[in-house]
């Protein structure tokens, strides 16, 4: 359905396209749990991770293997020609000729888009600095659709909204579903003005708050994020906001019955482990949903190029 296209940001997705990824993910979920599927047998996915990753890298790898395909991985930059000074553009041109699609995570904003300009095969952005993380958003939407509802959704995005790429991507997608969004962050870590302006331009209902107490009882989904320590130019600035939010069992008094708490993970200390045992905690299930959703994307992008 997608043909040869890149997955760089949620801004390039329509609601129909998102729904078709989520529908396909639904039908692939049994295979994500261990069934056998050979849809991508003979295909190769290259993984280029220039920043730490656990879930994104391993769920792409799992997704590819569950579809009968194979992966190759660049490994740390010190072990490749990048250590000799090779440019990203050259690396991409070369690996693009070995593989049928590329997944890239890189500390620089815009790097996936740059890669797409040199790649002969589809590029999937697995996080470009503080920019975007569209495949995370697709699994977030899948989780909301399955465990809550995308209709009349009231959601709070909590934490580091300035540097957090997951919330940047998610905000664009939520606008397509007409969600009512509350942005909760310390004053210095608010959602970038350009994204807020884009949301306003789409007629999205957006409120801002600095404290969680006033918000947590009014929402269906609480999407919590880590303060992105590695993006702070000054460690002192990080220390000032590091422990801004912590959701403990006591925070859940009076919340909606169906409230779900999501987190892209890794968490540091923004959600107490005691919350894991409550019916509201969805973050581990959410990370599993990365497999069927990435299977769906890979199938849509790579099957057509046979
Ligand atoms: C996120 C990321 O890398 O942006 N992690 C992930 O992909 N699940 C969130 C984070 O690192 O805080």
Please describe what this structure looks like:
This protein has 306 residues and is an alpha/beta fold. The chain folds into two domains: 10-132 and 290-302, Rossmann fold (3-Layer(aba) Sandwich); 134-287, Aspartate/ornithine carbamoyltransferase (Rossmann fold, 3-Layer(aba) Sandwich). It has helices at residues 15-32, 55-66, 88-96, 111-118, 134-147, 165-176, 193-201, 235-241, 283-302, and strands spanning 44-49, 70-73, 101-106, 123-128, 154-158, 180-184, 205-209, 221-224, 260-262. Strands 7-6-5-8-9 form a five-stranded parallel β-sheet, covered by helices on one side. The chain has a four-stranded parallel β-sheet with strand order 2-1-3-4, with helices on both faces. Strand 3 (101-106), helix 4 and strand 4 form a beta-alpha-beta unit. The longest helix is centred in the C-terminal third of the chain and has 20 residues, at 283-302. The chain starts with 14 loop residues before the first helix and ends with a helix. The relative contact order is 0.17. It binds N-carbamoyl-L-aspartate.
Summarize this structure briefly:
With 306 residues, this protein is an alpha/beta fold. The protein has helices at residues 15-32, 55-66, 88-96, 111-118, 134-147, 165-176, 193-201, 235-241, 283-302; strands spanning 44-49, 70-73, 101-106, 123-128, 154-158, 180-184, 205-209, 221-224, 260-262. α5 (134-147) packs across α6 (165-176).
